[in-house]
User: Which sequence fits this backbone?
């Protein structure tokens, strides 16, 4: 009996040792080209979102790679690959059960933008139903407006939409703009494209595949909390206050 108990105990100890020795997964982090939140500088992905996520991973001691992809591919990989997280992802009721969520890592307003010379007046989102709205194919704004029956004209890159707006190919552009952002000014549209209606305020997250271990997402959350406390989050945002969009066109 003692021998049997000794064998059982030894097996438990061995099992724990193997579990502890098992290496953690190297996370594959995907994002889109959406300056100044994520963009390429040489071969390195930088930006508000990318720098935030990189700092989270460093503080949580999680090995990772970051890759810039078209949004639909970046998002789909996070759904399908067990080692993948995608940012910056809007947390919606439809997506809630699809991911493990870390954040928020940022926030923005959803704004209908229009040509300044048209002087469009909208009081509610329903007032925009008679207009053609430019969206970014497959992103949360596109899905939100489609689900509500709006006439959308999706683009493969969101920065195409200002040009479409100025060419009268669309009447409005459904943009996601951080408060205080100077992106339009840097693109040369400061006096030509204006906000017409803020129709939502959202927070964005790092969305991880459901198979990513809870221990890792918990460590990410703890790292993010420490970044908010010590001012790192604010410093990352202000790092891009003077970023010039033109150099990345």
Assistant:
């Amino acid at each position: 009996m003692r021998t049997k108990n000794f064998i059982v105990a030894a097996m438990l100890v061995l099992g724990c040792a193997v579990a502890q020795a098992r290496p953690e997964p190297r996370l594959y982090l995907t994002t889109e080209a959406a300056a100044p939140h994520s963009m390429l500088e040489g071969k390195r992905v930088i930006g508000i979102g990318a720098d935030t996520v990189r700092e989270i991973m460093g503080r949580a001691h999680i090995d990772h790679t970051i890759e810039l992809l078209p949004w639909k591919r970046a998002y789909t990989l996070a759904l399908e690959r067990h080692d993948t997280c995608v940012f910056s992802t809007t947390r919606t009721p439809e997506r809630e059960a699809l991911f493990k969520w870390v954040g928020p890592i940022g926030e923005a307003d959803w704004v209908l933008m229009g040509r300044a010379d048209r002087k469009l007046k909208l009081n509610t989102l329903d007032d925009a139903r008679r207009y053609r709205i430019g969206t970014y194919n497959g992103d949360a704004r596109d899905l939100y407006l489609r689900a509500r029956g709006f006439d959308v004209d999706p683009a493969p890159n969101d920065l195409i939409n200002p040009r479409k707006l100025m060419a009268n190919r669309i009447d409005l552009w459904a943009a996601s703009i951080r408060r205080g952002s100077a992106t339009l000014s840097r693109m040369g549209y400061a006096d030509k494209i204006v906000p017409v209606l803020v129709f939502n305020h959202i927070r964005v997250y790092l969305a991880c595949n459901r198979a990513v271990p809870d221990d890792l997402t918990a460590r990410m959350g703890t790292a993010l909390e420490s970044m908010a406390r010590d001012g790192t989050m604010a410093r990352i945002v202000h790092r891009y206050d003077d970023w010039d969009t033109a150099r990345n066109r």
